[in-house]
């Protein structure tokens, strides 16, 4: 499905209440791990539509992000060919800090009234969710879906500890998503891209690290990632 920025969720919804997913992140740049996670979510969660939401002003990021308009364009190229996946620009167009709870509220207001909403995130995001703005309200508005890793503590039940304030009434524990475990990292890709003027084979190297070819072509036409990478924050698989 082609990227779409407009509202129109209600008009496209079927009579039966559908399930929508929200997958936010910096996508700086998006890689094939992000794409595989989106595909797994659509398939396993039987989503009517997954909305990929590049963040605007990410208050929680310890480094400066690539300008949002470029991250949006790269996300469109990475996710655009996927069925039932739509890249949206809501947070890119919003002034000030971007908060998932506000984005979700706007999507719910525009969508069918009885739709079910799921919010995708990685384990690191789940562990830090109590630092998010109005996190309890977010968990009342949607079901959290956490992408598993083989080394995750959730496999031993950590995510479902009954004493955890994130679990139990009025909240529900997260659903588990069996995401493909691909060794791709936006940080590693940025490091290759920063030295591409000295490396004529940079595109092949970056693509071996999971950079989609269409995204590599976009980057080659824009002066992105030429400065040395800032703090080495890893963005493996998912980066909400």
Give a quick precis of the structure:
With 240 residues, this protein is of the alpha/beta class. It has helices at residues 9-12, 32-45, 68-79, 90-93, 100-110, 123-127, 135-141, 186-194, 202-208, 213-220; strands at 19-25, 49-54, 85-87, 116-121, 143-147, 175-177.
- Rounded to an integer in angstroms, the radius of gyration calculated over CA atoms is 18 Å
Structural class: alpha/beta
Helix content: 25-40%
Strand count, sense and barrel status of the largest sheet are:
6 strands, parallel
Instruction: Assign the CATH superfamily.
Output: HUPs
SSE order, one letter for each helix or strand:
HEHEHEHHEHHEEHHH
Could you describe the 3D structure shown?
- By secondary structure, this protein is an alpha/beta fold.
- The chain has one domain (16-183): 3-Layer(aba) Sandwich (Rossmann fold), CATH 3.40.50.620.
- The protein has helices at residues 9-12, 32-45, 68-79, 90-93, 100-110, 123-127, 135-141, 186-194, 202-208, 213-220, and strands at 19-25, 49-54, 85-87, 116-121, 143-147, 175-177.
- It has a 6-stranded parallel sheet with strand order 3-2-1-4-5-6, sandwiched between helices.
- Strand 2 (49-54), helix 3 (68-79) and strand 3 (85-87) form a beta-alpha-beta unit.
- Helix 3 (68-79) packs antiparallel against helix 10 and helix 5 runs parallel beside helix 7 (135-141).
- The longest helix has 14 residues, at 32-45.
- The radius of gyration is 18 Å and the shape is globular.
